[in-house]
Amino acid sequence: MSDFSEELKGPVTDDEVETSVLTGAGMHFPWLQTYVETVAIGGKRKKDFAQTTSACLSFVQEALLKHQWQQAAEYMYSYFQTLEDSDSYKRQAAPEISLQHALYLLHHGMLEDAKRNLSEAETWRHGENTSSRGILINLIQAYKGLLQYYTWSKKKMELSKLDKDDYAYNAVAQDVFNHSWKTSANISALIKIPGVWDPFVKSYVEMLEFYGDRDGAQEVLTNYAYDEKFPSNPNAHIYLYNFLKRQKAPRSKMISVLKILYQIVPSHKLMLEFHTLLRKSEKEEHHKLGLEVLFGVLDFAGCTKNITAWKYLAKYLKKTLMGNHLAWVQDEWNSRKNWWPSFHFSYFWAKSDWKEDTALACEKAFVAGLLLGKGCRYFRYILKQDHQILGKKIKRMKRSVKKYSIVNPRLSY
Amino acid sequence: MTVPQTLAFCYLSLLWQREAITLSDLLRFVEEDHIPYINAFQHFPEQMKLYGRDRGIFGIESWPDYEDIYKKTIEVGTFLDLPRFPDITEDCYLHPNILCMKYLMEVNLPDEMHNLTCHVVKMTGMGEVDFLTFDPIAKMAKTVKYDVQAVAIIVVVLKLLFLLDDNLEWSLSNLAEKHNEKNKKDKPWFDFRKWYQIMKKAFDEKKQKWEEARAKYLWKSEKPLYYSFVDKPVAYKKREMVVNLQKQFSTLVDSTATAGKKSPSSFQFNWTEEDTDRTCFHGHSLQGVLKEKGQSLLTKNSLYWLSTQKFCRCYCTHVTTYEESNFSLSYQFILNLFSFLLRIKTSLLHEEVSLVEKKLFEKKYSVTKKKSRSKKARRH
Lengths: 413, 380
Known about the structure:
heterodimer, A: mainly alpha, 21 helices, B: mainly alpha, two-stranded antiparallel sheet, 3% strand
C-alpha cells in the first residue's frame, strides 16, 4: 500500500512574501507591509475590512514579485480604500503610495502626470504629524522640486539659444527664475535632514551657481560633506571638490577636501588629480603623501591598467629616489613587496601587457626595475623586446634602473 | 436595532415561511453582494441624511458571522415573544433528510449514502418535528442549525464507512480501484481516493478565487459616512483622494477583465454525469464498503473513533474544542471542505459532529465515563 502522506498535506502555511527590491522600471513597496502591520490591534477582534485589506496587500506583493503588473494594479485599486480607514496609521500610507506611483510614472516618461500627482499628494495632510511623515512630505516636495529643476534646466537651454536682444528673452528669463525659486524652496527643506540626497543636491547647487550665489552653494556642499549627522558619502566630497575646482579655490583647500576622499575611497580616479596637487605643493609631507596615494591607487585591481597612474608612479619614483628619499619608498614597498610582484609584475602580465599596450608595459617595467632590480622577470622581458619607437626609451630606462633601483647595493644609506 | 439584527430578523421571517434558504446560504448571499448589507445606506433616498450615530450603525466593516447571527435570531425571536413556529416536517427543505441529499450532491458523494444519513437521523431522533421546530417561548429557546447539522450527519456517515484514520480509507480505495478495473461495465464502486483528488482540486480552486475576490472587495462606497458636519469635508476629501488614485491605477488595468456578476445560486459546486473532465460520483455504488449479513447490510469497517471523548461542562459557550493536530488528515480535509461550503469555522462543525455522535452513541458515552478512553467498536 502506497503512502499517501504527500497527497494529504495539511493546509499550506502562508510564507511571508519576501519583500525584495525589483530592478528596472516598476513599482516596489517593501516598506508598505511593515508600515501597515505596525498597527496595534489592542485586543479587539480584527475586522474583516482590516483582514481583507492586508490580504489584498500580500496579493499585491505577490503579483509584483511575479511581474504580473496588471494583477497588481487591480489589487492596488482595491487597496486604496485603506485610505478611508478610520484607523489613522493606515491612512498615512497614502502619500507613500502616491510617491511610488509618481516614480513609476517618471520611469515611463510621463512627467506632467508625475508632477500633478505629487502636488496632490502634498495636499493630503491628515492624521498626526510624526517625524517619519515629516520626511515623507519633504521627500515628496523634493521630488517635485526635482521635476521643476528638470523643467528649469530645459528652459535654461532654451534661454542660452536665444539672443539677449530677442524680445522673448525676458519672458523666458522670468519664467526660469520663477521655476528656480520653487525648486529651491522644495529642495532646501529636504537636504537639511540627514541622508543621502545626491541628485537633489547636485541640481540645487547647479541652480545656485547659475544665479551667482556661490556662497550659498558652498555652504550647501560643505554642510552635505562635513556635517557629522549625515551618513558618510564619498559623492559629497566629490561634488565639493569639483565645485572648488570650478571656483579656482586655493590649493590647500582642495587638498584638504581630497584628503578625506582618499581616506574613504583610495581607488578613486580623482586620486590622480590629488597626487598632482600634492606634487605641486611646497610641503614635504605632501610629497610623501603623494607617493602613498599613488601606491594606494595601484593596490586595486580596477586600476592595474591605468597608464596614467603608472606613468606618474614611474616619474615620481625616479624623482623621489633622486631626491634621496629612499626611506619613503622603502616604507611603501615593505608592505607590498610580498604580493605586488605576482599581482603586477609576473611573466604572464609582461607578455599580455606588451601585447596590449606597449607604452603601459614600458612604464610598468620601469617601476618594476626600480623596485625589484634589473633581474626581475618583467623588466628583463621588456628589455628583450624590440621596438622601433620605444627602443631608445627602454635603453634610457635600463640606465636609470641601474643607477636608482632600491635593490642596488650601491645606493644604500 | 443594528444591521446584523435586521439580518437576523430577515432570517426569522424566512424560517417562519419555511423557505428553501438556510442561514449559511443567506450569509453567503450577503457576502456575494446579492443582499445589501455592507453599504446598505447607499440605497436610501437622497433626503435621508446619515451622520453621527448612524455612522456607527451603518459603517460596517465585517461580514456577518454565522454564530453571531444565529444567536441574534434567538434573541430577536425571544424578544418579540413569537409563538411556536410552523412545523418542520419531513417534506420541508430544512429537514435533515432533504438537506443531507442536497449537500451530498454538492460535494459529489454517491446518492446511496443518503440511505445511511436517513438511518442516522432516525436513530438520533434528529428528524423529529419537536426537535426541529423553533419555539421561542419554550423554556430553553433554541433553534437548530439545520445546515451545520445536516453536514455533521454526513461527516458521521463518512466516518462510519471509511473510518477516516488516514489508513482504512486508502485500503478500501485500493480494493475499489482493483474491482473497477476488472469490471468496467458494472456500476463502479466508489473510490475514496479518486473522489479526494477531484474534490481537493475543485475545492482549492474555489477557495483561491474566493480569497482573491475577498481581497479585492471594496468596502467603502461612493457616499462617505461622517460623524458630524465638521467631518464632512474631510470625509469627502478622502473619498476624492481614493477615487483619484484609483483612476491613476485603472489605466494600468485591462478594462475588459471584469466579468459580469453571477446571479445567486444555492449550489457552489456543480457536478454532472456528462462532464468527462471531472468524474461525477453520484451514481457510484457503495458496494465496496458494505457487506451483506443476512437481510441487512453492514459496513466493512467495524471501528469508529469519537470526535470528542469528553464534553465541556463549564459555563463557557462551547462544548468542545477542535485542535487540528489531534485528528487525521482526511478528517481535517473533510471538515475544511464542509466549513468552507457553509462559511463557518471548522471548530463549529466539529462541535456539531461531536453532538451528533453524542446522540448516536449515547449508551457508550455513559459507559465511557467509567472506562478508559480507547477506540470503541460499533456495529449497526
